[in-house]
Amino acid sequence: MADNTNRVVDIHTHMYPPVYVKMLEGRTTIPLVRKFVQDPEPRLILLASELEALDNALKDPTAKPPGRPLTSHYASVDQKLHFMKTNRIDVSVVSLANPWLDFLESSEAGGIAKEINEGFSTMCEEHCGKLYFFATLPLTAPLDVLKQSIQDVKNLKHCRGVILGTSGLGKGLDDPNLLPIFQELADAELIIFLHPHYGLPNEVYGPRAEEYGHVLPLALGFPMETTIAVARMYMAGVFDQVRGLRMLLAHSGGTLPFLAGRIESCILHDGDLVRNGKVPKDRRTVWDVLKEQIYLDAVIYSQVGLRAAAETSGADRLMYGTDHPFFPPIESDIQGEWHSAIFNADAVDSTFGKESDVARAVMGGNAIRVLRLDEE
Ligand code: URA
Ligand code: ZN
């Protein structure tokens, strides 16, 4: 067996398989892939914050097209492997990128989920030991189809969990109808990789939003979305009702490590909740849940963020990620090193000490243990 202590594992790395790209090419509203007269390369347009720019670019051939170039890094497994090699990553746990299958008609979601999950499974089998994956659930499908898909992915050898957005069955993750789904995932020992997509309402970015590119939705909208989704789950008691539930939160838990204390204080000082017996003395605090049921990725690009994440959930629950193929280098060759990947690895080294046991654990050891990446 390979020596695990120095292996680098990327647990936050996405793909859009060719079948998914094809689906996006056929769409006229977001998410979609399309070419513009302004730019012959196909572009990937995903976010609600891009809607206005999309509208403008379609009306005005001099307007800047929205989105990002759909480079070969999104769909090609060879590119994934090349990226891993050039950025010193030994193992990747690949997931479909946002917005997954959230937008599909109920009747088509089950079949497409099966196709995508089996495709990922075959890809991992062909690169055994190097690639694993988080599966995609057909959340808009009828409940029996959704449940069957959990049973299906549970039996796929390289599947280690599922990636999930915050919309759930349409009403968010505190929806009681999701409890049996969470229970099934827990019973199947499938971790949930919780990832944002919807951000915050466009209005919060103000009338000058277009001047600021993707910065505010990605840097702030995404993490707040994750924060709110998990806080809602906590307030609804989901973590107590499904004690086996394990979640890996994207972007180091949004702002949860920073805001957990404030959430606690607001709970303790909410007169109605306290008087109605909803804040029992023996309840598990937000901190308890973050330490017992939550894992955090290390995709936060700073020592301050990494320290907060490690103090909140434990350095033994923190796992390196890159967010490839998003955040490609702008000025240098995209076939070389990616600043976004190296910067995150450097942040781990500078926070925990280069080649220290903690840094090695964050860079790979934790993922190998938590996701059982040494099991065939
Ligand atoms: N932008 C996205 O839409 N998704 C990511 O995962 C990262 C950036
Ligand atoms: Zn991501």
From TrEMBL:
Keyword Hydrolase: yes
GO cellular component: cytosol
Location of the Amidohydrolase-related domain: 106-373
Matching SUPFAM superfamilies: Metallo-dependent hydrolases
GO terms for MF: carboxy-lyase activity; hydrolase activity
Cross-referenced Gene3D superfamilies: Metal-dependent hydrolases
Protein name: Putative Amidohydrolase
Organism taxonomic ancestry: Eukaryota, Fungi, Dikarya, Ascomycota, Pezizomycotina
